[in-house]
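Encode chain A's predicted structure.
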Amino acid sequence: VHGDMPTVRQANNSDWPLHNLDVANRRYSPLNEIDTSNASKLTLKWSYDAGAQIGEITPVVINGVMYFNSGSKLFAINAATGQPIWTFQMQPVFEGGGRGPTFGDGRIFAFGSSQMYSVDATFGRLLESFGDQGVLRALDTALQFKYPGKYPKDFDAISIGYLLRTPPAFYDNTLYFGVSIGDSHIPGGLMVAADATTGAIKWVFNTIPQGPQDDGWELAKDTWGSGARAGGGIWTQPAIDPELGMIYFSV
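Encoded structure for chain A:
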């Protein structure tokens, strides 16, 4: 690590636009009103009944508005009062949600187990330029891009264990997201880069090279026997260094 780490442009120090705060994944907040002298005195200020199952998510906060989702349902509430601002429901309904949404240039990107969608952060309006009428079949589209012709057009990536579990990182109008779950013996975890406006896939990297078409094949081909080249799921949001043009993620 060298020099000052990059940050996402933030309106104020109270913003939290990404799962890990910024593209460097620092997770550091300068807020200091709560410390060891008063933490024991904290009491409930407000609560919000979402009427939906909220998973292991990190809400994002932009200009005092908190955003969080339950799969295809996305909420925007006043972070100071808990009062609802708008609610968006994707149709058809789908479950999932992983670890929360992502903010980027006035848009909120949320997802379920295999699909991703983009909503205007101010008005809660679906951005239909993203994916297919607003919905990106992220897993299936990434596999079709990476391995053209290998899977049927109507193939469901969930059927072989692939799932979305971590929010994408946003940088330079590009979404970078990892794909799990290695526990399900997937044929390699995927790191995917997609255009944040259209959802078009830019590139896909497989953490376990499956053949000569994959980066790293010459390095990895002799480290596997004759069995399945499985595992390698990605559970964490990647970190990005714009100065070096590098992306970092753990497997």
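Residues 1-11 have pLDDT under 50 and may be disordered.
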